[in-house]
Amino acid sequence: MARSDTEIESGAGPPGAVERLEQAADAYARAHERVDSVGADALRDCRDIYRELWNLLESYDGRATGGGDFEAFMEFQGRVGTLTDDLSEDLPERDTFEEIDDFLQQRRLTESDFEQAREMLSPIGDLVGRLDELDDAREQYKKARTDAGRRRDELSDRIDELERLQRLGDADLDAPVEHLREPIERYNDAVTEAFTDFRRNTPARDALAVIERADAYPLVEFRSPPAELLTYVREHDAGTEPIPKLLEYADYSASKLDHYVDDAAALRSAVATRQTYLRRLDAEPVRVDWPPPSATALPWLCRAYRSVVARFADESVVAALREVRGLAERDDYERLRESALARSELTEAERERLASGAVEQELSVAREARAAIDDALDTYSPL
Questions:
Q1: Three-class DSSP category at 241
Q2: Using CA atoms, how far apart are residues 255 and 264, in angstroms rounded to an integer?
Q3: Which Pfam families match (predicted)?
Q4: How many Å apart are CA 257 and CA 239, to the nearest integer?
Q5: Is residue 137 domain-resident?
Q6: Domain end: 280, 299, 328, which one?
Q7: Overall number of domains in the chain
Q8: Mean pLDDT of 274-287
Q9: Same domain for 23 and 108?
Q10: Residue 237 DSSP code
Q11: Single pTM value for the model
């Protein structure tokens, strides 16, 4: 059977986030020590001289050799001499730079002399390369730390999911969930019927005004009416017709539509292009989901729903919503809700994993892996 991510994190196989961070930290420490043994400032000064001398060799090779340009030859030797004349006494590889200068101050230079000078520079290139190694090690360390933080977040998400599975696994599947389901179904049926009547019989301008005002309640997820549609129903007589009639008009031909509305072009522009929005307008945003939300969330949800539902439904629907809100006050609400969640959400495979102890084992491994990452992140601080 394939192992889970958490098992891979703590077991054999490719290195996990902690091991990669430890390796990156060790590499950074070694690179830092190699730079410190010489001195970062001294190495940077040495690198500047190295690069300038290397560029001179590249620039004048072929021009200052053999029977080439004598002026270029003299210019090259002068620039090399100027570069090496004022070297700091404590510059790393100072003697090597001076040896290269002495070597290049010949009466005649060949291409092989330039190649020899590059070979003489090579050890200095290795030395100043420690700065690049340190930069690379620093970036790898930062990346390893970022990856470890990301892995920790993944483990936290997985732990939350496994703990949820455990809670569902502990739920009483024989609990009388109908005590919650039946009031919710009564309300959902009532609000659906009320909204259907409201949509069918209310002038579109009034119906869309109710939907627009629902924007004030973030928990009520009606899509706000398009601005052009709102403007049309407010400013044209056709706005006094209910939504189904507007949709019917939108299907008329232009010549037929002229007999029913004062501005056929305006209706086609505002309504015909928004038919999908109008057809999908239903009571779903004010229905209570099954399984229901937590006892903490349900009263807030019902309070927001009431502010909208009361605008299109009668008192009986509002009373049904109050009954739903009151469910959260039951002492057994969370027990019944957990039972409903377990029945609704637990798959057969999850039930088997719970029964076999696989979920508990993976949860333990995930917690250990997260704790190890926490320790590593505390040990290896940000740069």
A1: coil
A2: 9
A3: DUF7118
A4: 15
A5: yes
A6: 280
A7: 2
A8: 95
A9: yes
A10: G
A11: 0.61
In single-letter form, the type of residue at position 338 comes to: E
Contact 84, 101 (CB under 8 A): yes
Of 280, 297, 319, which residue sits at a domain end? Answer: 280
Does 154 fall in a domain?
A: no
- Whether 126 and 31 share a structural domain: yes
In angstroms, the CA 24 to CA 136 distance is 10
Return the pLDDT at 66: 65
On whether the CB atoms of residues 109 and 65 are closer than 8 A, the answer is yes
Answer yes or no: is 250 within a domain. yes
**Buried b or exposed e, range 16-45, using 16+ CB within 10 angstroms:** bbbebbbebbebbeebbebbeebeeebbeb
**pLDDT higher than threshold 60 for residue 289:** yes
Q: Which residues contact 104 (CB under 8 A, 6 or more apart)?
A: 76, 77, 80, 113, 117
Q: Which pLDDT value is given to residue 14?
A: 54
Q: What is the 3-state secondary structure (H, E, C) of 311-365?
A: CCCCHHHHHHHHHHHHHCCCCCHHHHHHHHHHHHHCCHHHHHHHHHCHHHHHHHH
Could you give the C-alpha distances from 82 to 64, 78, 85, 239, in angstroms and in order? 17, 6, 5, 88
Which two three-digit tokens encode residue 112? Answer: 């092989």
272 is in which domain, residue-wise?
223-280
| pLDDT band at 67; cut points 50, 70, 90 | low
Q: Give the tens place of pLDDT for each residue, 182-219.
A: 999 999 999 999 999 999 999 999 999 999 999 999 99
Q: How far apart are CA 184 and CA 325, in angstroms?
A: 9
Render pLDDT for 326-383 as a digit per residue (tens, 0 to 9): 999 999 999 999 999 888 888 889 989 988 999 999 999 999 999 999 999 999 999 8
Q: Are the beta carbons of 323 and 179 closer than 8 angstroms?
A: no
Residue 27 lies in a domain: yes
What confidence category does residue 304 fall into, taking pLDDT thresholds of 50, 70 and 90?
Answer: very high
Please report which residue ranges of the chain form alpha helices under DSSP H. 5-10, 17-36, 40-60, 70-85, 94-104, 111-169, 178-201, 204-213, 227-235, 243-250, 254-257, 264-270, 275-279, 297-309, 315-327, 333-345, 348-356, 358-379
> Looking up tokens 């190649």, which residue turns up?
115
Within 13 Å and on the Cβ side, how many CA atoms surround 91? Answer: 21
b/e sequence 51-64, b meaning 16+ C-beta within 10 Å:
eebeebbeebbeeb
Question: How many Å apart are CA 293 and CA 217, to the nearest integer?
Answer: 17
